Amino acid sequence: MQPLRLLLHRQEIGQRVEALAQCIDADYRGRAPVLLAVLKGAFVFLADLVRHLHLPLEIEFVRLASYGTRTQTSGQVELLLGPRLPLTGRDVIIVEDIIDTGLSVRWLVDYLERQRPATIRVCALLVRSTARSDPALRVDYVGFEIGQGFVVGYGLDMGEKYRSLPDIYVVEGTA
Ligand code: 5GP
Ligand code: MG
After folding, report:
1. Taking a C-beta distance cutoff of 8 angstroms, is the pair 152, 161 a contact?
2. Are 13 and 59 a contacting pair, CB within 8 Å?
3. Chunked in runs of 10, what are the mean pLDDT values of the chain (175 residues)?
4. Which residue among 1, 25, 124, 161 is the one 20 to 30 A from 19 at the CA level?
């Protein structure tokens, strides 16, 4: 088992999630957005985020499989589940655990746009600094910008392990 190095403590994550919720509350005042979380990794972030929101929101899930790798120039994304809620005319907020290359979220925005929602915004707990510099990728709410290294905990897994850890760690040797 590879050792883990603490990256973000639960207290720091909690404070940041609360601050993101305050921004969303203010931006969507008087509206009822659909929070569309990407399974599985975003489930802990979503659960914490919605408990700090005071909006009359709805929750929906999608599950994606992405076959993009760092060694391929064009990755492919496949929709494995949902969404079932009609999104036409709705304010959709995509909730992601981490944006790495940005491939999945770009694909998802394209896919959702075909349903003609009123608005689509992206809320990601973690964004790789390399993805932030991509002008084609707009992330409206960012928890933390992080560098290289595979991260686990707070919903994020490595081979289905570590999702239940309350803090976020970098797996040693992956940076
Ligand atoms: P993308 O490259 O399309 O932006 O990232 C797609 C997905 O890969 C993310 O939503 C996440 O599920 C997974 N992923 C990317 N980087 C990491 C990481 O460091 N740790 C974990 N656990 N998953 C990651
Ligand atoms: Mg994900």
Report:
1. yes
2. no
3. 94 98 98 98 98 98 78 73 95 97 94 97 96 85 96 96 98 91
4. 161
56 CB-contact burial (10 Å; exposed 0-12 / middle 13-18 / buried 19+): exposed
Tell me the pTM: 0.95
How far is the centre of ligand 1, averaged over its atoms, from the C-alpha of 100 (Å)?
5
Ligand 1 neighbour 91 (Cβ under 6 A): no
Those residues whose C-beta lies under 8 Å from the C-beta of residue 168, and which sit 6 or more positions away, are 6, 7, 8, 13, 126, 151, 152, 153, 154, 156
Q: What is the set of active-site residues? A: 100
User: What is the 8-class DSSP label of residue 37?
Assistant: E
Element (H, E) at 24: helix 10-27
